[in-house]
Write a structure and sequence with these properties.
three-stranded antiparallel β-sheet; 19 helices; Creatine Kinase, Chain A, domain 2; 520 residues; seven-stranded antiparallel β-sheet; alpha+beta
């Protein structure tokens, strides 16, 4: 695999060296709105932020209190980070006394029934989105749906594909070739995805009030906090979002047809435990259906193949229509130490890592390797910094340092090609920084969090609450805000409310008819 990787990278360099530069990067970042005392906000989504249904940049996820910031796709990490920063600054200007919770793991969360579901107005599409979330609450519990993260979206530069198809000598048409290669990238990312939890995991501790049934399995740091001494990302472990029914869903990543067919089958397969919940009870929808998945987005995975869907088009139909357009990485925690929850070094490393995964040989995934991948993720999440911890590769144990250095070496090779365009070493510097995390686990965000909690004898809640105040003050202190961006967000908020109104007024069929047509 390494030999073919080197050959491919050499061929790309010989082609001019610019083929890996200029991929499109987008960020989706979730943040809970909390009151001044750190409790979950019970207030409606602020009207001044526009319509959660139609605002292109600021919307909501599971709960009315769970904001989601969505950037456009940019060619540089600097543009992307600036946009994230501008969205945060604008939002804070509209929140009054509320703050954004800076961590992936929530703390002062009410009982399930009291967590407000996101609402999207009276249109059929808006009501469908709320019903879907109500179904998630019945299936997995509402508290687990308030866990937040950062999604990294990436598409390889368009000009890369024709050149790479020629390098590999493929006779597939360009759409088929691109989808085939993206799936190879995804399979390799699944293989090495543990490194994202190790490097960027920032949830080694959580409030005891949130632990629920998992309390017996966790260690106590202090009166209010559970933790894993060597944990990296409890959000991505079986202590975070997990579901036994989804473990039975077989969605192959070995071809696009297999992937789409696997998802489609799960959406059409009845699940007895969900049938017991009921679909429409006493005239009110509890869920969209009683199948293994209500819709495609319910399928939980650390990485997804994506294509921008047309109006009313389902994600699987979009993939069938035009193939894979970009990749969504869903395994990054919110970084408490960054006001925006992510920084340029993380984005640069992720871009280089994905290109490394693309250029490596990527054989099909079998059941035995999938079991290894699952074990590596779960164990890295819970004890990835343990000196005695060993990953499993091809049935044999391997240390984080050994495998991590191998990955970083490949990422550095890719970074050199990206950096060549701008004649600097910003991507290589990001990779070298991650190398220091591999060599010294105490430098990772997860280790820093545990160290600060122990040194200050502080609960996770107090630590995160103080960070929320710091971030609020940071955005308030920016001397020269991007007034053009602030004006744009005001304009988008106003226009999004009109777009929602237009959608509501255009509905001409009942909700029952709408859902029937959607699933047909």
């Amino acid at each position: 695999m390494k030999q073919n990787f080197d050959k491919r990278l050499t061929a790309i360099a010989a082609d001019g060296g610019d083929l890996l530069h200029g991929g499109l990067i987008g960020i989706e970042k979730e943040s809970l709105r909390v009151t001044a005392d750190g409790s979950l906000s019970m207030a409606d989504h602020p009207l001044s932020l526009g319509s959660a249904l139609t605002n292109r940049y600021i919307t909501t996820d599971f709960s009315e209190a769970l904001l989601e910031f969505v950037t456009p796709a940019f060619k540089t990490t600097w543009e992307t980070l600036n946009f994230v920063c501008d969205m945060h600054q604008f939002t804070y200007s509209q929140l009054g006394d509320e703050m954004l919770w800076p961590a992936s793991m929530p703390c002062r969360i009410p009982d399930d029934d009291d967590i407000p579901l996101a609402r999207y107005g009276s249109s059929n599409v808006g009501r469908m989105k709320t019903i879907y979330r109500r179904g998630l609450g019945y299936r997995y519990g509402r508290q687990m749906q308030t866990i937040a993260g950062v999604h990294f979206n990436y598409s390889v530069p368009q000009e890369f594909w024709d050149a790479y198809r020629e390098i590999l000598g493929s006779e597939l048409n360009i759409d088929e070739f691109r989808s085939e290669q993206y799936l190879g990238l995804i399979r390799n990312f699944r293989r090495v995805g543990w490194i994202v939890l190790y490097l960027f995991g920032a949830s080694p501790a959580l409030c005891k009030s949130f632990a629920g049934d998992n309390a017996a399995a966790m260690k106590s740091l202090n009166e209010e906090t559970y933790f894993e001494p060597y944990g990296t990302s409890l959000r991505m472990s079986d202590l975070g979002y997990s579901n036994q029914n989804q473990s039975r869903i077989s969605v192959s990543l070995n071809s696009l047809d297999e992937y789409v067919n696997g998802l489609s089958e799960a959406i059409e397969t009845l699940e007895p435990s969900y049938e017991e919940i009921g679909v429409k009870v006493d005239g009110r929808y509890r869920q969209l259906n009683s199948n293994l998945l209500q819709i495609e987005n319910e399928f939980y995975s650390s990485v997804r193949p994506k294509r921008v869907a047309e109006s009313g088009e389902r994600p699987t139909a979009a993939l069938r229509r035009g193939g894979i357009e970009y990749i969504e990485i869903r395994s990054m925690d919110i970084n408490l130490f960054d006001p925006c929850g992510i920084n340029q070094n993380a984005m640069r490393f992720m871009e280089s890592l994905l290109l490394y995964c693309l250029l490596l040989e990527s054989p099909s995934l079998g059941d035995a390797e999938l079991d290894e991948i699952s074990l590596n993720q779960t164990e890295t999440a819970k004890r990835g910094r343990d000196p005695d911890f060993r990953l499993i590769r091809d049935g044999a144990p391997v240390s984080v340092r050994e495998w991590g250095r191998e990955i970083i070496d490949g990422v550095l090779s890719v970074s050199a090609q990206i950096d060549g365009h701008d004649e600097n070493e910003s991507y290589a510097e990001a990779a070298r920084l991650m190398q220091t995390f591999i060599d010294d686990p105490n430098l990772t965000p997860s280790a820093r969090i545990i160290a600060e909690l122990e040194e200050a004898d502080m609960s996770f809640f107090r630590f995160a609450h103080q960070m929320a105040k710091n971030h609020r003050d940071y955005f308030a202190s920016i001397a020269q805000p991007n007034n053009a961006a602030i004006d744009m967000f005001h304009k988008e908020a106003k226009e999004s409310l009109q777009r929602q109104k237009d959608i509501e007024e255009s509905d001409s069929i009942s909700l029952d008819e709408y859902l029937s047509e959607y699933f047909d």
